[in-house]
Amino acid sequence: MASNIHHRSADVRIDEDVDFSTLIRNSLLLKGLGQSGYAKPSPIQLQAIPLGRLGVDLIAQAKSGTGKTVVFSVIAIEAVNLSVKQPQVIIVVPTREIAIQIRDVIRNLSQCMRNLSCEAFIGGLSVQEDHRKITQCQIMVGTPGRLMALMNTDKLNAKDIKLIVMDEADKLMADIFKPQIQYIYQRLPTTKQCIAFSATFTDELLESLNGFMKSPQIVRLTTLVPTLEEVQQYYENVQVDENKMEMPLEIYKAKFEAVGQLLSKVPFYQCMIFLNSVPRAMELTKWLTDMGWQSGYIHAGLTQIQRIKVMEQMRDFKLRVLVCSDLIARGIDIDRVNLVINVDFPWEIETYLHRVGRTGRFGMSGIAVNLIGPSDHDFLQALLDHGVTVNPLPGS
Ligand code: ADP
Question: What is the whole-number distance in angstroms between the Cα of residue 36 and the centre of ligand 1?
Fold first, then answer.
């Protein structure tokens, strides 16, 4: 994965001649990094790993796909005392899929450390199984609801937890999650270290996090517009009959046609398509499957087992196209995704930036195409006003 680093964009390239051994002492962890394909640290890794290892509270911001997960995974692994078989690190994330992904990254990085155990604790899977996993796990990765439920029982002994990591912190500080985070935080030992990561960063976020941090160090690598250098963003106007402009189904029909054309005209390995409506997402998937594309869909209405299965199919390259809700707009890393299509715009610019960040992972090139129907012009204008570069799709 890391062999091509010299061809990657400046988001992930550093000029200094350092490798991970200047940042990390643990030789088994270094070996795991090497075996996972990581040779040189990215800028956020170079800056944030040393601070995190010092034990200070930390807020780090960098664009999607620039290696933040490796930062806190390394900090978490190094924080563990291998002779203590109790939870010592808790990593809180907003979605179940991100939790599973992080567990797998940590397991990969710690593959040479036999005594290190990391487990995911997420809703939708068996609580009894979680009670069993908790007895042998040192790094817990989970979603707020399930972690909170576990803290409510006497099954989780939190006295050895010394580090809490909040990934996608802006999302965790939103109203739906914040009370749960507070609950979890207050039940951990008072001396813990707290680190928070986010691709977006606002004054409100800083203020919300203040309640959890003691004079945090701040690492910010993003400028005002956190899109990736290597992601080209385009829009394409979808043609709808003038007398059908007010008919949502007709607009979707035209957009589906446009998706079909895009997929046959733009070369891609894997594609993620975002829609705001679950029934339309299912229809589009069926339509694409009928056209011969190996397609699947994911949204919060599926069972957890179904969600895990479709993500595995995508990672194993058994699907070329994944039709999604904003459930996986954030944090999900599938490195072959080089095309993102927005059939609908999301409600917020930040969500848009997260969606687009699903491609262009670690400086590889990617394309995002927005399909513009009659009601999408305002959002497009808002993006342009925000400084995001979105051009008309050539040849459309
Ligand atoms: P973020 O958390 O910032 O969205 P990730 O940590 O998921 O980004 O990393 C994005 C991709 O880059 C992943 O596929 C990861 O394996 C890869 N990656 C991360 N750090 C390195 C590195 N130092 N060298 C090579 N690849 C890396």
Answer: 10
